[in-house]
Amino acid sequence: MRVSLRYQVLSGVLSVAAIAAVGAMTLPAGTTEWRPVSRPVAAPARPVAAPAQRLAAPTRQAAARKRLPAEISAAKPARLVTTTLDHTGRPIVTVREVTDKTEAQQASTALGVEVDGIVRALEAPTGTDTYRSRQWDLTTMRVPAAWERSTGAGVTVAVIDTGVDASHPDLAGRVLTGYDATTDQVGGSTDPQGHGTHVAGTVAALAGNGIGVAGVAPDVRILPVRVLGANGEGYDSDTAEGVVWAADHGADVINMSLGGTSQSSALTSAVAYARSKGVVVVAAAGNERQKGSPTSYPGADPGVIAVAATDSADRVASYSNAGGYVDVAAPGSAILSTYPTALASSGYASMSGTSMASPHVAALAALLVAARPGLTPDEVESALEDSAVDLGAAGKDNDFGYGRVDAVAALDKVAPEEKPTTTPTPTPTITPVPAKPTVTTDVTARTVTYGTRTSTTFKVTAGGEPWAAQPVSLCVSAAGGAWSCTAGKTTSTGTYTVARTATASFRVRLTASTASSTSTYTVKAGLAVARGAKKTLTVKVTGAAGQKLTVQRYVNKRWSTVKSYAATSTRTVTGLVSGGSYRVVLSSTSKVAGVTSQTVKA
């Protein structure tokens, strides 16, 4: 049911509450059987101990009558969400608009019928330290020490949120092609609101690249799923669809930094479906402590790891919800992370909320799955809870759950570090071994505009000397495709230079013997917006012809879409409000990252 959900933040950007997804597939052999949740429209909002059996149709319809608005007419239509199953048992969420109560009550074959509520962001004031010089959260969780054993390589984390700015240099090469549930199209790689990019940076910002911040799991892939619009609002049905889509498209972990005070059977069924496919589901616990800590969903849904927030002194945050559904806690106050450069020129922002705490736990779950593939969601949750630092009252409590997560201790639970042997060994016979080559590159990760001529130079050394005139293998992967390799030789100084015109995002890898190094290029579309004649803008695009392009106007402290069209190389946009503030958002493709223009006055 579309209920009112809010961003779990306390710092001037938003954290949000989401709903479960549509869709499902036949379960692979060996997966845990799941059953859909059936909840009548009138069911009270409360934690659910376990998925229930399907309701009989008369009970469902009677409940629907209780929950329907007092008046339904052509002038005041109602949006209803219906959850059904396809022939494989996959949950399907559909939305329809009805104009009379008789029509609204006709859902005899549905698992659940719910009034579609609004999801929205809850803004809160920011702290004074907007740009922090260090990340206290990683130190508190002992993340750098954990990187010696796992960085999340090979794991995909779905960020169900406002989208993710794939062109951000600190996320270069990490963001996959995702899905925009608000438009039912491939997308999600732009973020007109900012919250999703902040969450994604906490999970997977590049480490050791010399800029910005580091994520908890810097080698994971981010699967962006947009369920909220540029104004920070959306529908339960879109969030439910996003959860199922992520589960069907390779997500190992799902993060939902969002929540509301009413349950949705669509969401609960979608979470159950995702878990049946081995997906770990993590959500924010809520930011309404000052309002009595009303139970927040999906955090309180069965199988979801609900995360409370702590500050730099390991105290529960003043806004963080308390309740029996809280499983663990994680740093959530004054968290520095990535932010769209179109919204903050530095590309970074400090935010607070359980929205910021949740991705710390989702990323730690990814470290565990990477360290020991095949872990079930229950095993991951147990490892997080059993290894947490017990804070507050002894044992599990309503503020911290089982405690604040610890990366090293959690890894010890699933993949104990091997202790070196102390058995004396004979002194070995020393035989000179030829030095092995090492490979370095002058470009680790870079974002360039479509059409740019790139140059990457690799340097190969062995024993500190140039590996001159030696055979190497050069491989290129364009737009996430398969590697294409050719043989070559280093120069007399041990270098190898590759020139390439950037027409799609790509990776370049040079291998010398068993050593290799990779450079990642994110190619963004070219977008230039200028004021033309009065009430017009001139828009020029390169590298994304035919892709969706939206014109947005800033009114009442929010961006609203006023025009959409397929991108062409040059276009004059007319009919704008004189003196109005506008920007243009170009969506991503599988080859080229989208981009958001600067603000221009019409």
UniProtKB/TrEMBL annotation:
<keyword id="KW-0720">Serine protease</keyword>
<dbReference type="Pfam" id="PF00082">
    <property type="entry name" value="Peptidase_S8"/>
</dbReference>
<comment type="similarity">
    <text>Belongs to the peptidase S8 family.</text>
</comment>
<feature type="active site" description="Charge relay system">
    <location>
        <position position="355"/>
    </location>
</feature>
<keyword id="KW-0732">Signal</keyword>
<dbReference type="InterPro" id="IPR015500">
    <property type="entry name" value="Peptidase_S8_subtilisin-rel"/>
</dbReference>
<dbReference type="InterPro" id="IPR022398">
    <property type="entry name" value="Peptidase_S8_His-AS"/>
</dbReference>
<dbReference type="InterPro" id="IPR023828">
    <property type="entry name" value="Peptidase_S8_Ser-AS"/>
</dbReference>
<keyword id="KW-0645">Protease</keyword>
<feature type="domain" description="Peptidase S8/S53">
    <location>
        <begin position="152"/>
        <end position="403"/>
    </location>
</feature>
<dbReference type="InterPro" id="IPR036852">
    <property type="entry name" value="Peptidase_S8/S53_dom_sf"/>
</dbReference>
<dbReference type="InterPro" id="IPR034084">
    <property type="entry name" value="Thermitase-like_dom"/>
</dbReference>
<keyword id="KW-0378">Hydrolase</keyword>
<feature type="region of interest" description="Disordered">
    <location>
        <begin position="416"/>
        <end position="437"/>
    </location>
</feature>
<protein>
    <submittedName>
        <fullName>Type VII secretion-associated serine protease mycosin</fullName>
    </submittedName>
</protein>
<feature type="compositionally biased region" description="Pro residues">
    <location>
        <begin position="423"/>
        <end position="435"/>
    </location>
</feature>
<feature type="signal peptide">
    <location>
        <begin position="1"/>
        <end position="20"/>
    </location>
</feature>
<feature type="active site" description="Charge relay system">
    <location>
        <position position="161"/>
    </location>
</feature>
<dbReference type="InterPro" id="IPR023827">
    <property type="entry name" value="Peptidase_S8_Asp-AS"/>
</dbReference>
<dbReference type="GO" id="GO:0004252">
    <property type="term" value="F:serine-type endopeptidase activity"/>
</dbReference>
<dbReference type="InterPro" id="IPR000209">
    <property type="entry name" value="Peptidase_S8/S53_dom"/>
</dbReference>
<dbReference type="InterPro" id="IPR050131">
    <property type="entry name" value="Peptidase_S8_subtilisin-like"/>
</dbReference>
<dbReference type="GO" id="GO:0006508">
    <property type="term" value="P:proteolysis"/>
</dbReference>
<dbReference type="GO" id="GO:0005576">
    <property type="term" value="C:extracellular region"/>
</dbReference>
<keyword id="KW-0964">Secreted</keyword>
<feature type="active site" description="Charge relay system">
    <location>
        <position position="195"/>
    </location>
</feature>
